[in-house]
Amino acid sequence: MNQDDILLEVRGLRASVESKEILKGIDLTVRPGEVHAIMGPNGSGKSTLSEVLAGDPAFTVTGGSVRFHGIDLLSLSPEDRSHEGLFLSFQYPVEIPGVSMVNFMRAAVNAKRKYFNEPPLTAAEFLKMMRAKREVVELDNKLASRSVNEGFSGGEKKRNEIFQMAVLEPRLSILDETDSGLDIDALRVVAGGVNKLKTDRNATIVITHYQRLLDYIRPDFVHVLYKGRIVRTGGPELALELEERGYDWIKQEIDAGESAI
Amino acid sequence: MSASVKQYTDLYEANRDKFGDRDEALKALSGAMLPDLFAPDYGLNVGRVRIPVDVAESFRCDVPTVSTLMGLVLNDTFVPSTTLAGRLPEGVVFGPLSECMDRLPEMIDPTELTALNDLLLQDGVIVYVPDGVRLHKPLQLVNIFSAPVDLMAVRRLVVILGENACARMLVCDHTQDDLRKYLSLEVVQISLARGSHFDLVNVEEASPLTGRRLEMRARLAADSSLAVTMAHLGGGDSAADIRVHLDGHGSEARVNGMIIAGGESRVANATTVWHHGERTRSEQLFKYVADGAAICDFRGRIVVDEAARFTEAYQNNRNLLASDRAAIHTEPTLEIYCDDVKCSHGAATGQLDTEALFYMRSRGIPEEQARHMLMEAFMADVIDGVSVDGLPDRLRLLVERRFNGVDSAVCANCVPNNDLSTPNCDHV
């Protein structure tokens, strides 16, 4: 496989928060067109992995490397990671009272254009784009005039994340527990949005505790994260097995292996 | 308080013929001490020397002045704009105070600073709106410093509204240059008759070498209402002491503040709202963003008299520390001498929400810009509370410019736009 075909290459990634190590050597390779699911019990480090990749300053990277279409991702600021095509759909989208969705998105879009030496969009161009992208997730027009995520329902917040994803057209999207707090209709809309945005040039990492989102977003690979490491990788059938048997059998296997050492 | 008042009383004595008889003020100042700010020897234009400034040239607004009825106080002298003449409704006065110096309203809650203002006042501005007159266009007063030497200006604004009168006013404080040291000693006296309404928005965007002491006194008769917004966007050492008396039953006051302080500036606001009448209502919201090495101060006080039954009084102070060298002191106080009231006060000082900051950055918004957007957002409720049409947008723009470092001593944008011609007194 040609090196150019690798979108994300994580090698031995270690990260800690307040000197507690959460990620203990993650290896992960993602190619364009692929959908990866990362599953695992609570507290295994799934959200930390997504936040570290997005550059959350709350975490300290203590080892390993991440290459994103050839670039040293860890050397970039969160904003530059976004410009380079990384997108994180937050598990808990942040409410920002006083910042309107329109201003927020305009700032994001024009910052990216500036990064690539393109002129800012005119007001008309921008509004036209917003309209088109809203349709992807059937986002209500009235939400656009409100403050970012303020007073949005759980489902609206998640739709809003996918809407932002549609606007920013990332090369790699990480969906962190996008299914949490969604009823079945909202789940269908959100997953439908993700599928509409899928091409053979971009890739998606779906982080989820449950299998049900994977009924809508079909993964090519399923990884199990436990105690800060990927302990098992398989195809879609692994997710089904986890759904059926839970995580305990994997925990036992790993814990037994650890105590044998 | 360590500066002696002597240099000022000496100046008065030496020019007694020009000031006239001000023995009462002189007596009040005997042995008084003034803030440090008053220690240097600023020049005072006692001889009323005309300082040659081409007003049109030096103060240009990029918005047509037809939108407001504008007057200018150049240092300490009232200069009406050409648009003012003949455009004021019958009986309305917006002019120099020098013509009615012998009929100034009584000073309530006098201090050393009001006494010093009494002693050295030579001109000022009077706004008078007769009974039942509702001014549709806002008045605008631009206080501007421009002089070839360091200068102190003794300023006064007297606002008198008759019964059921209504007026809105924008006061801008600016400095023409960044070179001179200026000191403004301002007294604002507001008297609202029964059922009247007055909106006052003060935008201070002065140079770091400009000091300011403002003493505001307001007295409200029954069912009248006052809304004051103090917007501080720039200046050196600036302090305001705002005292509002809700005398009449059913009178209401809202006193808000939006303070953006940076550099080495000092910004202080002290407010006192007295509830004397029944069913009176007051709200205070002061928000500060302190950056650089700015030191800010808020002392808010609500006093509810024994007789002021059914009072509602709220006070809220929220602050953002944007730098580890900045400091904010806050002291909210409530004094309630009556049982049947609803009162609350609160103060909180914090830093920018790091989660929101990361969220914005993860969408590609550069950190600096994200910080600015969050600081602007923090001020949103104060700005939205300004009920003069068009002005909230102007303020938002000014705040944005302020955060983006596009700030000049003269704000070319502080004038509300043409939309202001829409009547907006119906909310009273």
Could you list some keywords that capture this structure?
heterodimer, A: 261 residues, alpha/beta, Rossmann fold, six-stranded mixed β-sheet, four-stranded antiparallel β-sheet, 9 helices, 12 strands, 38% helix, B: 428 residues, ten-stranded mixed β-sheet, 17% helix, disordered C terminus
Structural commentary:
The complex is a heterodimer of chains A (261) and B (428). Helices cover 38% and strands 27% of the residues of chain A. In chain A, α7 (184-197) links the parallel β9 (172-176) and β10 (203-207). With 261 residues, chain A is α/β, with parallel strands linked by helices. Chain A has helices spanning 46-54, 78-83, 101-115, 123-136, 141-144, 154-168, 184-197, 236-245, 248-260, and strands at residues 8-17, 20-30, 35-39, 60-68, 71-72, 86-89, 96-100, 147-148, 172-176, 203-207, 221-226, 229-234. Chain A is globular. Chain A is built from 9 helices and 12 strands. In chain A, the strands form 3 sheets. Chain A has a 6-stranded mixed beta sheet with strand order 6-9-10-3-11-12, sandwiched between helices. Chain A has a 4-stranded antiparallel beta sheet with strand order 2-1-4-5, with helices on one face. Chain A has a two-stranded antiparallel ribbon with strand order 7-8. In chain A, α4 packs across α6 and α6 runs parallel beside α7. Chain B has 428 residues and is α/β, with parallel strands linked by helices. Chain B has helices spanning 6-14, 16-19, 23-28, 55-58, 112-120, 354-362, 367-378, 380-384, 391-403, and strands spanning 3-4, 33-34, 43-44, 69-74, 77-80, 93-96, 125-129, 139-145, 151-161, 166-175, 182-192, 197-205, 210-220, 225-234, 237-246, 252-261, 266-275, 281-290, 295-304, 311-321, 327-336, 341-350. In chain B, strands 3, 6, 7, 9, 11, 13, 15, 17, 19 and 21 form a 10-stranded mixed beta sheet that branches. In chain B, β4 (69-74) and β5 (77-80) form a beta hairpin. In chain B, α6 (354-362) crosses α7 and α7 (367-378) packs antiparallel against α9 (391-403). The interface between A and B is medium-sized, with 32 and 24 residues.
